[in-house]
TrEMBL record, chain A:
Gene3D superfamilies: Leucine-rich Repeat Variant, TATA-Binding Protein. It comes from Canis lupus familiaris (Dog). GO terms for cellular component: clathrin adaptor complex; Golgi apparatus. It comes from the Eukaryota. Adaptor protein complex 4 (AP-4) is a heterotetramer composed of two large adaptins (epsilon-type subunit AP4E1 and beta-type subunit AP4B1), a medium adaptin (mu-type subunit AP4M1) and a small adaptin (sigma-type AP4S1). Interacts with TEPSIN; this interaction requires the presence of a functional AP-4 complex. Interacts with GRIA2; probably indirect it mediates the somatodendritic localization of GRIA2 in neurons. Belongs to the adaptor complexes large subunit family. Keywords: Golgi apparatus, Membrane, Protein transport, Transport. One of its GO terms (biological process) is vesicle-mediated transport. PANTHER family: ADAPTOR COMPLEX SUBUNIT BETA FAMILY MEMBER. This is AP-4 complex subunit beta-1. Residues 38-47, 90-101 have a biased composition (Gly residues).
UniProtKB/TrEMBL annotation, chain B:
It is a peripheral membrane protein. It is found in: Early endosome; Endomembrane system; Golgi apparatus, trans-Golgi network membrane. Component of the adaptor protein complex 4 (AP-4). Adaptor protein complexes are vesicle coat components involved both in vesicle formation and cargo selection. They control the vesicular transport of proteins in different trafficking pathways. AP-4 forms a non clathrin-associated coat on vesicles departing the trans-Golgi network (TGN) and may be involved in the targeting of proteins from the trans-Golgi network (TGN) to the endosomal-lysosomal system. Coiled coil: none annotated. SUPFAM superfamilies: Second domain of Mu2 adaptin subunit (ap50) of ap2 adaptor, SNARE-like. Belongs to the adaptor complexes medium subunit family. Its main location: other. This is AP-4 complex subunit mu-1.
Length: 747, 437
């Protein structure tokens, strides 16, 4: 941003204001709207207070008169939403090149934006719900009295109309009655344009395309979702442009279709990746729709929404805390939703709601479904890291139930808890006696034995419990339990030698002489030899300082920045979960992985924003000396004739491993305007392909690719109808780049 | 963009299969999907599954699986929305969505899919656009048997112009078949509320959540304008006050995009020109502060406290019991009721509960090995593992928020003599009605 001299800015502002009043006052419905909690009216300053927020004048480019404003208003009436008429009383900088988007008046920050406007001189009204009031740099641009408005405390105001819905919401363009087919041509053109690397390279054209996309009013919800998806690939040139786009798309956030709302949210998060406060505001706005989806009747939608709620909670832990009741489970819900809800509850807990949440979770612990009960207990264990006392009390009560599936999980929770929160050791040690009768499974036994070993000195009957395990070690089926038993008994021996010596001897004898499992036997032998080395040595090794558990805890709770998952928002990633997604995408292989492959298929996908620089490098080879023309279509016959009439101009081998994916290769070649004439099927031996390309001077390049799997290399033969070395070299480097890219991805 | 779409019956039989892009395996994906679905480990969600490079996303709708496959990382919200929209469309075209109607209307369904999706991209889902292209007529199994109407005709003479339409009346194809021009013009308006309530053991309310919807199913020609008048005391948000009474307050309202709201502010009238078919006109939510008392109470007993003119249907009490219950003796207030023990819980079914009545059920359980109550003497605390009790029920002609439809007026006048029939229903049903013991 260029900092504007305040004087100039103020000068431009005043006429704009005067002009702004007249049309605003005439507008029907203005009175009602002014009563809206658009709270930011204060931002407009005292002078505007009487007029009502939305009637506040809009700073315009100096040369524009009243007529321009009226025209703009008419357009915005038919434009993105009828509702748009009031909040977006905009003036379009209708220049041929300028973005020309209607700057929206939200009645808050427009005066402050005036100065910036003036200096930018783009003719675009920049104001509205999303504006640049963030950096201190911009703030200095305006007169100091307006700093408040510029800084946008405005977002905090209840601008979000869902709190009350006084506004006719859902009047966003997504009218189902709108003909989508009617605008099909536009969509087609857009798709073509956006997939065309030349358009992407040509910034001006790209920009025009984007503008047309944004202004498309007559799209149904599916079209809107597509458009929002396409827009992800656009990188605004400047901050003004960025906020223009945000303002124009603001109505999508209020759409009644969750798909559109989430698409818009993702776009906002990605566009505003340098403006964390904007991101937070977007997430506040999307809270309503997300919560509505979470209590939706469609289980599937509910699940997807819950997954996204969790994603948001990772970054903004308190975001949903006041709505914790929405995440209480009902018994009729399917298992997977209950599990998600329990996870969410576990993450949104805070001082105010911890009591209620724990109460609710305790109810789940005795659920009929053992899986769900265990998940609830683990969740309580998770909360116990912060609210230890209450949770340990609940868990102790649960032990009183004497039910196997509960006891085993509670003991495991205790083990983790003692490790992470040493202050609760005392309470845990008091709760433990007696629960060994109710533990049958391996995990639970391990946890119990570990606890007895590590904190045995505080549990009076610890040696006797362990003795029972030693007695029954022959019938023990899990090797892991035996290993745990060995370690625990040795530890206990160090602090209570008199009670443990005898059984330790028996256990070691059994492990060394009779045990079949190698790992257990080796562990037994190891401890035996360690004991031979003397008790001090054992102490030194077993009781050496442990790693600091609190470090792990801190790391675990570190808030992840929004940007780390913004590109995953509204995709399948949160729904699968990050870990599973990683496994899946590894499994899926390369062609779905990322944007580095410049083929149309991956462009059309909702992949992340393609960095501009990257596209440049892809385009570089043919934008230099060599310019390959698109749409050079040779018939196979002509190719064959020419091929045989020419002699090989260049021949080389290219290292290649594995098979070829003809589709991928063909698509990649098409991007750089190399046409495929013929190609063998995948997996054919030998594999061949014939390619052709033509540069802007009409010179033809005919190529044969030959892959013989034994040699693990690809033979490239190029023929040229006019012998020119420099273009030939250019062509070969293009070809090599493509093959290299494909080869890299494949391997 | 989706690769394939198929519909499976609840038993896994493929009913409809359509491949849009031909980029992935053959018909056996449907089987594959069902195998994966049934063999899924308990802690994974079935909503999104993957196999090789394909993602399966499905919804369950009236016992059918509507599945889409895709190989891209697309927006789950849009796709789920599309699937439910497809379910609604199929329901509109075939009458209702069920295994029977789908298999009777296979040709129609394929035709519809062809128009809605092209190469995996959505073309349109609007009824208006689609009706120009769909030629096949829906096959309806049994149009209207007199048997269905018998419950109506029993009490009054006016079988034709009865005050009550049978509950199946709305489940017929939306588009009038070309042969049958005498198709009735009808509008069905449902106000449906889902109630989720959590009551603490001492009877205090912990959570009340009402999710309401006004659903419209219109058989009128598109573009006919109608006005729906809601209760005048209806207010939105915490602060607004209307009328003299306590008012009917909801927290949030959202409207369908085709609703015009000029008169909403002044007279609570929604004006809209609905397309044919089903449409959710308005959604609203209300939490924590319910104007009317709750329909059920349960301290030791379930008590019904609405006025006596109403009744509740299909009431079912679900009470989880402690593990190890060996026997159960019951003493119920009515002979036709019965309670069953199964899956570690008690189920007490009441097909019909008259308003104002009080029902009691005394259940005695034998639980060997359950530790006695903590402390000495009689304790009122329930043993661990008992409860919470959940009720599920339907309350016809009652909305918990108190919202009513005052009128439904049509601007449309049909050329024939019959004026359109308008049916309005109010219904509350339980989403989760939980009472801690």
């Amino acid at each position: 941003m260029v900092a504007a001299p305040p004087a100039e800015g103020a000068a431009r502002l005043r006429p704009a204001e005067r002009r702004g009043r007249a049309p605003g006052g005439r507008r029907p419905g203005g009175a009602r709207r002014s009563a809206l909690p658009r709270g930011g009216g204060g931002g407009g300053g005292a002078r505007l207070g009487a007029v009502g927020p939305e009637e506040a004048g809009l700073p315009q480019g100096a040369g524009r008169g009243l007529s321009g404003r009226v025209a703009a208003r008419r357009r915005s009436d038919g434009g993105p939403g009828r509702e748009g008429a009031a909040p977006w009383g905009g003036e379009a900088g209708s220049g041929a090149e300028g973005l020309g988007v209607a700057g929206a008046v939200s009645g808050r920050s427009e005066p402050a934006c005036g100065p910036q406007e003036g200096t930018a001189g783009a003719g675009a009204g920049l104001a509205g719900p999303w504006s640049l009031g963030c950096g201190p740099g911009e703030a200095e641009a305006g007169p100091t009295s307006r700093l408040g408005a510029l800084r946008r405390p405005t977002f905090a105001s209840p601008r979000f109309p869902r709190q009350g819905w006084e506004e006719p919401a859902g009047t966003a363009p997504g009218r189902e009655t709108m003909p989508y087919l009617g605008s099909e041509d536009v969509v087609k053109e857009l798709k073509k344009a956006l997939c065309n690397p030349h358009v992407q390279a040509d910034r001006l054209r790209y920009r025009n395309v984007i503008q047309r996309v944004i202004r498309m009013p007559k799209l149904d919800q599916w079209g809107q979702a597509e458009v929002l998806n396409f827009l992800l690939r656009y990188q605004p040139r400047s901050e003004e442009e960025l906020f223009d786009i945000l303002n124009l798309l603001d109505s999508f956030l209020k759409s009644s279709s969750p798909g559109v709302v989430m698409g818009a949210t993702k776009l906002f998060l990605i566009l505003a990746k340098k403006f964390p406060h904007v991101q937070t505001d977007v997430l506040v706005q999307v809270k309503g729709p997300l919560l509505a989806a979470c209590s939706s009747e469609s289980r599937e939608l509910c699940f997807a929404a819950l997954c996204h709620v969790r994603q948001i909670l990772h970054s903004l832990p308190g975001h949903f805390s006041s709505h914790y009741k929405k995440f209480f489970c009902s018994y009729s819900e399917p298992h997977y939703i209950k599990l998600q809800k329990v996870e969410v509850l576990c993450e949104l807990v805070n001082d105010e709601n911890v009591q209620q949440v724990l109460e609710e979770l305790r109810g789940y612990c005795t659920d009929v479904s053992a899986d769900f009960a265990q998940a609830a207990i683990f969740a309580i264990g998770g909360i116990a890291r912060t609210y230890t006392d209450q949770c340990v009390q609940i868990l102790t009560e649960l032990l009183g139930l004497r039910q196997e599936h509960i006891t085993t999980v509670v003991v495991q929770t205790f083990r983790d808890l003692v490790w992470l929160c040493p202050q609760c050791t005392e309470a845990v040690c008091q709760a433990l006696p007696g629960c060994e009768e109710n533990i049958q499974d391996s995990e639970g036994k391990q946890a119990l034995i570990w606890l007895l070993g590590v904190h045995g000195e505080r549990i009076p009957n610890a040696p006797y419990v362990l003795e029972d395990f030693v007695e029954n070690v022959k019938s023990e089926t899990f090797p892991a339990v035996k290993m745990e038993l060995l370690t625990a008994l040795l530890r206990l021996f160090l602090c209570r030698p008199a009670e443990c010596q005898d059984m330790l001897g028996r256990l070691l004898h059994y492990c060394i002489e009779e045990e079949k499992d190698m790992a257990v036997r080796d562990r037994g032998l190891f401890y035996y030899r360690l004991l031979l080395a003397g008790i001090d040595e054992v102490k030194r090794i077993l009781c050496s300082p442990k790693s600091d558990p609190s470090l792990g805890l801190l790391e675990d709770q570190a808030e992840r920045p929004v940007n780390s998952w913004a590109s995953d928002f509204n995709t399948l990633v949160p729904v699968y979960g990050k870990a599973r997604w990683a496994a899946i995408s590894k499994y899926q292989g390369a062609e779905h992985r990322g944007p580095e492959l410049p083929n149309t298929a991956s462009f059309a996908s909702s992949g992340p924003l393609i960095p501009e620089e990257h596209k440049e490098t892809v385009q570089e080879p043919d934008s230099g000396a060599l310019m390959l023309v698109p749409n050079c279509q040779l018939t196979a016959e002509y190719f064959e004739k020419t091929w045989f009439s020419l002699k090989v101009a260049h021949q080389q081998v290219f290292p290649w491993k594995g098979a070829v994916h003809p589709d991928t290769l063909q698509m990649a070649l098409q991007v750089v305007n190399i046409q495929t004439i013929a190609m063998s099927r995948a997996g054919a031996h030998p594999w061949k392909a014939y390619l052709s390309a033509q540069d802007d001077t009409g010179c033809l390049f005919l190529t044969e690719l030959l892959l013989e799997p034994e040699n693990s290399e690809m033979q490239i033969s190029v023929k040229q109808n006019e012998p020119r070395t420099e273009t030939l070299n250019g062509f070969i480097s293009v070809l090599e780049t493509v093959l290299g890219t494909i080869g890299d991805i494949k391997s | 963009m989706i690769s394939q779409f198929f519909i499976l019956s609840s038993k896994g039989d493929p009913l409809i299969y359509k491949d849009f892009r031909g980029d992935s395996g053959g018909r056996d994906v449907a089987e594959l999907f069902y195998r994966k679905l049934t063999g899924l480990p308990g802690d994974e969600s079935p909503v999104v599954m993957h196999h090789d490079d394909r993602h399966f996303i499905h919804i369950r709708h009236s016992g059918l699986y509507l599945v889409a496959t895709t190989s891209e990382n697309i927006s789950p919200f849009s796709l789920l929305e599309l699937l439910s929209r497809l379910a609604t469309l199929l329901g509109d075209y075939c009458g209702s969505l069920s295994e029977g109607t789908i298999s009777r209307n296979v040709a129609l369904v394929y035709e519809l899919l062809d128009e809605v999706l092209d190469y995996g991209y959505v073309q349109t889902t609007s009824m208006e656009m689609l009706r120009n292209f769909i030629q096949t007529e829906a096959v309806v199994s049994k149009p209207f048997s007199l048997f269905d109407l018998s419950s109506v005709g029993l009490f009054g003479a006016e079988t034709q112009q009865s005050k009550v339409a049978p509950s199946t009346a709305a489940s017929r194809p939306v588009l009038a078949s070309r042969s049958d021009q005498s198709q009735k013009n009808e509008v069905f308006l449902d106000v449906v509320e889902r109630l989720s309530v959590l009551i603490a053991s001492n009877g205090s309310l912990l959570k009340v959540d009402v999710q309401g919807e006004i659903r419209l199913k219109s058989f009128l020609p598109s573009g006919s304008e109608m006005r729906i008048g809601l209760t005048e005391e209806f207010c939105v948000g915490k602060s607004e006050l209307r009328g003299y009474g306590p008012g009917i307050r909801v927290d949030e309202v959202s409207f369908h995009s085709s609703v015009l709201l000029e008169e909403f502010e002044s007279h609570r009238i929604l004006r809209l020109q609905p397309p044919q078919g089903e449409l959710t006109v308005m959604r609203y939510q209300l939490s924590d502060d319910l104007p009317s008392p709750l329909p059920f109470r349960l301290f030791p007993s379930v008590q019904w406290d609405r006025g006596s003119g109403s009744q509740a249907l299909n009431v079912r009490l679900h009470l989880p019991l402690p593990r190890g219950v060996v026997s159960l003796s019951q003493e119920l207030s009515g002979p036709e009721q019965k309670a069953e023990l199964g899956e570690g819980a008690l189920r007490w079914d009441l097909p019909r509960v008259q308003g104002g009545s009080q029902l009691s059920g005394l259940f005695q359980m034998d639980v060997p090995g359950l530790p006695g109550p903590p402390g000495q003497g009689h304790s009122t605390t329930a043993p661990l593992g008992l409860g919470p009790a959940s009720l599920s029920f339907e309350l016809p002609r009652h909305t918990c928020s108190g919202l009513q439809v005052r009128f439904l007026r049509l601007a449309f006048r049909p050329c024939g003599s019959t004026s359109p029939h308008k049916w309005v229903r109010h219904l509350s049903h339980s989403d989760a009605y939980v009472i801690r013991i």
